[in-house]
Each structure stands twice: as structure tokens, then as C-alpha cells.
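Researcher: I'm preparing a figure for a lab meeting and need a structural model of a single chain. I don't have an experimental structure, so a prediction will have to do for now. The sequence is pasted below. Please return the structure as C-alpha cells so I can convert it later.
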Amino acid sequence: MHELNTQDRERAVLVGVARSGERWLAEDHLEELALLADTAGADVIEKTIQEKNRIDPAYFVGKGKANDLAERVTELQANLLIFDDDLSPAQVRNLEKLTGLKVLDRSGLILDIFARRAKTKEARTQVELAQLNYLLPRLTRQWTHLSRQVGGIGTRGPGETQLEVDRRLIRKRIGLLTKALDRIKSQRHVRRQGRQDSFKVALVGYTNAGKSTLLNTLTQSDVFVEDRLFATLDATIRRLKVDNQKDILVIDTVGFIRKLPHNLVASFMSTLEEARLADAFLHVVDVTHPHLFEHISVVKDVLNDLDILDKPTVFVFNKIDKLKQKAIVDRLKQEFSPAVFVSAVRGFFLQDLIAEILKLMTHSVKELVITMPARHSEIIARLHSLSDVKESVYEEDRVRLVLTTPNENVELIKRLLEKKLPGEFEWTSANGGEARIGKAKNDE
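Model: Understood. Here is the structure written out cell by cell.
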């Protein structure tokens, strides 16, 4: 794994490119890049934007601007250049040679932050895999600004032969890490078996929106919280106790961000699998952020890429206690529904959120009453695995089961009974209707 040297804070110059008429967007992206740099341990001493419609293949910003940067970083005594967009390996080499400085792009910076934040074995494995996929096409002897912990990769001498050896070692390591993540995925699947009967809501949202704070407040937990980007990398699961209701599990996930590296999303798929298998989402939004609508759009895009955007969702607009422009609340209520406005830090209006969670829970499950021959113990056991059996009443040679099950399991149970017990079972739903022997009664 590669980690930033954190003994001394580095002096960084940030560089962005603005397309025609989009300077404001480039400025906003650089503000976020500055937060990332601070999280990584660098002091931003200057930000510069080049207005350019076409990217220069050699220097990204053009040879003239690159020469200006070389002079400026010398004046400022900077030791790090960070670009807001992804750079090609050739662009990195050219810029480092011209300026004499270390050059990072946004993806490389995010990956280094993740390397520092990763605490668990799973997170470290995922980060290292993403880093190696990122490093592979960029492997040169100029990359001396990151500590090497993968067998001395890239540090052992010049020449194409040595680079090829290093590339083979990286590919071998990537293969080992991929297999390790497959094992982790299998272990997660086993652990999930004990949570099948619980209603699961996943906290999703832009990084630093307050997801971990909300998790702590809702569940009286002590998950690590910090007012920096990417404070949480691992999927954290805590139990929410609400009266005598069925168990509710709240899942905290890694925050999303603009231009999130593709390799990182792919590597963190085992963690994001927890969100994929959740019954519903709580989309947490920093209501005080000036670009909250763009943040909502970014999160939706990532969820869409993961093919899980269609889950039932409650929009949770957090930090309401810090909101100065109260007029935006009416607009948000009109555009996003259902929506609640809370303060996770101060505990304001959390009962409204819990009420919405209970609504989601009620709408996501169906109550069924099934009567069938008691001798089919294997089918009864299967029903227990697919549902939460509330009541079992045995009368002579038959059993009456009252159960609740997720909507997606209803058709599975129906097909099971029709295949195994044709003409021998009765089925009704909580919405009423007379039972018919041997077939499931439609509750519409």
C-alpha cells in the first residue's frame, strides 16, 4: 500500500481547467480539491485555473501554462502539484520533468487519503487493489513521493526490463488481492444470513454530509466521526431499537464524491454490497452546502451505476440547525419526497425520521396467513428461512402460519407452495379476501 509521508505538511498548488462558460464550476471543484488536499496533509498555497476547451495531450494545460506553473511553484517554494482531473501517465511524466515537483491528479490524491483512512483488513485490501490498478500504467522511477510497501515496486533500478518485472509483480499482487476480496465477500454473505429477518436501511450520501454522526445519534453508537472528507470507509452496521418493532439495522457506507475513481468504486464493491442488499436508503444531504443539488445528483449517478437507484428512499436533510436560508426548505419539500429535516449533532427531529423508517418498513413487507399439511417439515423450514413467522398453530394434521416477508419473497413463496403442495394449501394476505385451496389469492 502507498501512503503519503505525513511527517511534514506539503505545500501544494492546485490546478484546474475550465471549459467555456464554466469557470464557476472549476472554482467549486478546486474548493473541494482543497479540502481533499487538507485531509491528505497538504497546505494549499495557491489555486490556478486555465480556461481551455481542448486538453493538451502532453501537458494537460498546454506547454505555455506548464512553463508558467514551473516558474510560479519555484517562487512559492511549493513541492506538490495537484490537478483536479485525471492525468495520463505521459502528462504526469512531462509535468514532473518540467516543474521538478511531484504531480498528483484527483484520483491519486483520493487513493492516498483512502490509504491513510483504511483501518480494517477489508478496507486496506480494497484500497491497495485500487491503488495498484491506478499505479500500473503510471509505473516509472520518477514516482518517489509515495512510500512503497509492495515488495519495493518501482524502486530497484532503471530500464525497461526492471519496469516489466515490476509490472508483473503488480499484476500478481492484484490477482492475490482480488482473490482475497472474493473470500471477504463470501464471509460477508455468511454473516448476512443472520440478518435476513431484519429490515435494513443504508445511509448513502455525499462525503461529509453527516452519515456517521446520524448513525451514532440514532443507535447510540460510537462510530468514528471527523469533520473531514472520507472519515468512514468501512460499512458499519448498528441496530436501531424502536419500541417492540421488528429489528431495524442501519448501515453506514463510504461517502461519494465527484470524479470518484472508477477503480475505487470497483474495489469497494464488497463494501457497497451492503447498500445493494438494503431494503431502503436514507439519502443524507448537507442542507447547508451551497451545491447540495449537485451533491444529490452525484449520489444518484453512483447509485444508478451500481444499479440500485430504484430502492425506496427517504431524503434526510441534515444540519438544519446551521441553515441560514430557511426559504430553501419549502423548495426541498416540493422537489424531494419523502423528506425530513434533522440535526444529527443536536438530535433535532429524529422522531420524524424514525416515523419515515417505520413507513418504509411497513410498505416493504407483506403479512401472509398460510395453512398447509403439518407433515411437510422441510417446506415449513423453508418458509422460516424466507420470512419472519409470527405464529404457528397446529390443528390435527395441519398447521396455520402467520408470517411477514419482504415483497420480493412473496412470489418465491407462492411458486414453492404451488410446486410442492398443489391443492393442499390455503393462502390469504393481510389485505383480506377468502382463501382458495391450492392457490395463492391475489391481494390486489
